[in-house]
Amino acid sequence: MENPMTSFFRSLSLHHGYLAAALSCAGLLAMAYYFEYVLYLDPCPLCMLQRLITLMIGIGFLLAFFTRNTGWPLKLSLLFTIGWGVFGIWAADHQLWLQNLPPEDVPACGPSFDYMLDTMPLAELLKVMLHGDGNCAEVSWTLLGKSMPWWTRIAFAVYGLAALFAPWRSSVKRVD
Question: Which of 66, 57, 65 lies closest to 29 in space, CA to CA?
Fold first, then answer.
């Protein structure tokens, strides 16, 4: 007789994986808001960009969940997710690069993101979000000696790889 837990995991489909990935993105966003509003860690422009990317990846997986087994709509939603995952890796790597600059090479700190959102035109705000500023070089939180952008880079890579290999996984015939 098969173990009930093993039976449960065998019953899960790729479709459930899309939903789990979307929910994990929601969890990452909830953690970001916890860091901001409970631990009072102000997000820098690159942190805000990574939040947006996490949201878009979650939307991509949610679209994949709703368009399961529909051919090109599913593939488009997975391609959308892969694109945001690659962009997320770039954004996290850029922040890690800023964090590893010698102190004399770190760009000047800018105003808070909320202030920039209220006062800057959208094009200027996007430029700051993509380039970052001195606030992005600060390491205010670590887990196991790694900063937040290091962990988000891992998450973006996992999401991107999952979306990349999902069509291949669904085309493989299972032999039980």
Answer: 57
Burial class (CB in 10 A: 0-12, 13-18, 19+), 98: buried
Q: How far apart are CA 65 and CA 16, in angstroms?
A: 7
User: Global pTM?
Assistant: 0.80
Q: 30, exposed or middle or buried, with CB in 10 Å at 0-12, 13-18, 19+? A: exposed
CB 61 within 8 A of CB 19: yes
CA 54, CA 13: separation in Å to the nearest integer? 23
Amino acid residing at 128: V
Cα Rg of the chain, angstroms: 19
Could you tell me the pLDDT band of residue 103, with boundaries at 50, 70 and 90? Answer: confident
Copy the structure tokens of residue 151.
């962990």
110, two tokens:
């800018």
Give tens-digit pLDDT for 28-43: 999 999 999 999 888 8
H or E element in which residue 80 lies: helix 72-99
Instruction: Extract the tokens encoding 86.
Output: 């690659």
**HSE-up of residue 37 (Cα within 13 Å, Cβ side):** 6
Q: How many CB atoms lie within 10 A of CB 9?
A: 9
